[in-house]
Amino acid sequence: MKKIFPIIAETSPKQEIPLDDKHLKIMEAIFPYAKPKSQKNLTTVTINKVTRNSKVMLFLLPEWAPNFAPYNLARLLAVIKGAGYQADAVDLNVKAWNEHTEWDIDFDPWHGSKEWRWMGRSYHEHLHEHMRPLMEKYIQKIEDDKIDVVGFSYYYCNQEPTDWMASEIKKRYPHIKILVGGPQCHAFPPGEDKPYYDYIVSGEGEEMILQVLEEIDTGILSNKQKQLRQVEGQRLDLDTLPWADYSHFDLSEYRFPNGVNAEFSRGCTAKCVFCSETHFWKYRGRGALNTVNEITKLYLNYGVDYVWFLDSLVNGNLNELRGFCKGIIASEIKIKWTGYARCNKKMDLDYFKDMAASGCHMLSYGIESGSNKVLVDMDKMVTVDEIEENLYNGALVGVEAHSNWIVGFPTEGPQEIYESMTLITRNNLYLNIIAGGHGFTEPPDTILSQNNEKFGLLKSYFQSNWITKDFKNNKVNRAIRLITFNILLYNTPTKKSVYNFANFDTTKYHTVKFNNPDRHDKVEYEIFDFNIIDTNISPFANSVVNEVWPLLRLLYRVKGGYEITIKIIPDYINNEFGNRLGSNLTSDMHFVITHDGAWSANFDFKFKQDENAWTYQDYSRETSASAKRARILALPGSQGEIQWSWDKYKIDIEKLEQLKNVDFSFEYSYTKDGKW
Ligand code: B12
Ligand code: SF4
Predict the structure, then answer these.
(1) CATH no. for residue 71?
(2) Domain end: 186, 214, 229, which one?
(3) Does pLDDT of 89 surpass 90?
């Protein structure tokens, strides 16, 4: 048989698996689907191994998921060690996670909805005293090991401890150079107010870290902070990068000790308007053969049998992914794998069969909404029918569906959230995890926030969060929407051995008694008028008092008669959501409906607006590379340049001054009987 992939086989750094019969069988299986080189115009990172003087130590601080050894550090380690540097890495996140059960706190700091606890004042009030001894220990190690360069991976939720540790290192050992890179450097790179960072790296790190280290190693030292941005449009060639080096991590410390992360691709083929990560870097994939070889080696040499692919989407290139599946099947290794995916109508039942046979046990879909209108507004490029078909086919062959949802998108109203809830109850047995999210927030580097007026948002914020121009989508009704969405999840049965992923304890918010608890009907999508209550107070008040109806209506259609009480008090929501969706809202809603639709509602609401509720918020001046890329798409013709001017600013500020007189505080009671 002819050699099928000569280019990849020769340039890929660790092709150590001999071309025996099995390997040829694998290549034969991959060949009909994959290409020898999937894209053109990729940048190869040049790694020159020479003797270096500098010793490097990389760190990851909390909070980050303690599931697997940090892939980004393992990737960077492989590159810098390949170039001859002595390097080590410490995952302080996992070390803290392993210790935290001893900490005297009444919340789980690693729970998916508690990452805000690591931010701002909350970190210093509750967590710093626990983190400090661990950080001190490793600051000492930096001194003991005579480290010259320290690198940190920066996320929005690990800034506080990272800033603290970096500033302490600088204070105590000013000669040590400190670099910082990672996702938070794309959107809000730290600036001169954080002078302890000598180098700030924004974008893919493999080439830039070599540049920085070369500078330091050859003695080119500057006392000024230096920002490095990846060359616009550059895409590093993943096939020619060395595989991640996990040798500095103890896999037994992690939640999945038998697993690692890997990647098929970087970037995303879609441009959903709310998404920032699609603007980090341009899409390019990795050859299927390279990925199969890496995973096979990890399996055979290290016993790794679980792989979580970290891609924004594993199915950006359907052919290469299928090639990977065919290759793994031919290799006969028994792994399980998972990753994020887009729903895609091109994935038919046969496609799902191949994925399942290769060990894919679950895909994590960004479903976001069950409303075709909202999906179009989001530019998801997928319809509700296609989503349902993927879920169904996956369930048939055992590729389970983890689903991620956006509750409270700007163009989502009660009808649209009703459709999302309907999709969930219709497909409950095909969904194994339903992650309701934290409510839609507006990251700066998205198409939406670079032209947010197009999506009906006001330039100003209301109580630290976005609000639509008609005031009907605001953080107060969104909190109720998120709570009712989670109440629905809590009361929706899913498959045996799987669970609803409510981010918080919904039993605190509601009690419900169904006349027939086991009933769960599959209902059709319907259009329903949820403007049931008119308070005659304000559109804001109407949005709040009517927010509960989609849940009430759907529960009735799916489960028949029931009685429910929903309670919201400021303490709960402020503690649960922090500033994000917490507010001074008190509400008590009681609703009873009989099996034939006779209902009775008793609702009380009291909302007190904060002082200084209105603030100016404008992302159009963001200068990060990802914000610029988002702006190119949000404002065609702008070429990404900032469209801001003093004249526009003055108009916005005048509007803000007028808004400052608007007070939405209200009290309202509603008692009524009706018939559905
Ligand atoms: C996989 C993933 C997850 C997984 C993590 C899996 C795991 N750890 O086991 C899970 C599902 C747990 C997860 C959860 C969340 N995630 Co997430 N996640 C990702 C994702 C898709 C991939 C991350 C990744 O590893 N990429 C591949 C590596 C190679 O890229 P990288 O980490 O950026 O590293 C490169 C560069 O940044 C740079 N670099 C990194 N570190 C350093 C250090 C130095 C010194 C240098 C020089 C360079 C450098 O070089 C690296 C190699 O090129 C990213 C988006 C993306 N496509 O990157 C989001 C992302 C990291 N997640 C994000 C968020 C917001 C979350 C959540 C908070 C979501 C939520 N609301 O629940 C949670 C919270 C996680 C937590 N607190 O624990 C944001 C972070 C935003 C920010 N500014 O920090 C991202 C960027 C997505 C986004 N929408 O913007 N996530
Ligand atoms: S949300 Fe997912 S599919 Fe959409 S652009 Fe972002 S990464 Fe891609």
Answers:
(1) 3.40.50.2300
(2) 229
(3) yes
- Picking from 204, 229, 254, the residue at the C-terminal end of a domain is 229
Residue 1: band (very low, low, confident or very high) from pLDDT cuts 50, 70, 90: very low
How do residues 643-662 score in pLDDT, each as one tens digit? 888 998 999 999 999 999 99
Atom nearest to 340 CA in ligand 2: 2
Whether cis (ω within 30° of 0) applies to the bond prior to 207 is no
The domain in which residue 208 lies consists of 46-229
**28: in domain:** no
**Ligand 1 binding pocket includes 674 (Cβ within 6 Å):** no
Report the domain count for the chain: 2
> Would you say residue 38 has pLDDT above 70?
no
For residue 633 and ligand 2, the question of a CB distance below 6 A is answered with no
Q: What is the pLDDT of residues 306-326, one digit of tens each?
A: 999 999 999 999 999 999 999
- Binding site membership of 201 for ligand 1 (Cβ less than 6 Å): yes
Q: Is 99's pLDDT higher than 80? A: yes
Residue type present at position 259:
G
What φ, ψ does residue 348 adopt, rounded to 5°?
A: -95, -170
Cβ of 312 closer than 6 Å to ligand 2, yes or no, is yes
> In the predicted model, is pLDDT for residue 7 greater than 60?
no
Q: Tokens for 597?
A: 């639709």
What's the gap in Å between 44 CA and the centre of ligand 1? 23
Mean of the per-residue pLDDT values of the chain: 92
Q: Does residue 314 contact residue 362 with C-beta atoms inside 8 Å? A: no
- In this prediction, residue 115 carries a pLDDT of 84
Report yes or no on 67 lying in a domain.
yes
Ligand located closest to 626 CA: 1
Which ranges in 527-614 belong to alpha helices (H)? Answer: 539-545, 549-559, 570-577
In a domain? residue 63: yes
Between the CA of 183 and the centroid of ligand 1 the distance, in Å, is: 6
333 lines ligand 2 (CB under 6 A): no
d(CA 257, CA 260): 8
User: Which pLDDT does position 499 carry in this prediction?
Assistant: 66
In a domain, 584, yes or no: yes
Contact 582, 573 (CB under 8 A): yes
**Residue 445 in contact with ligand 1 by CB distance below 6 A:** no
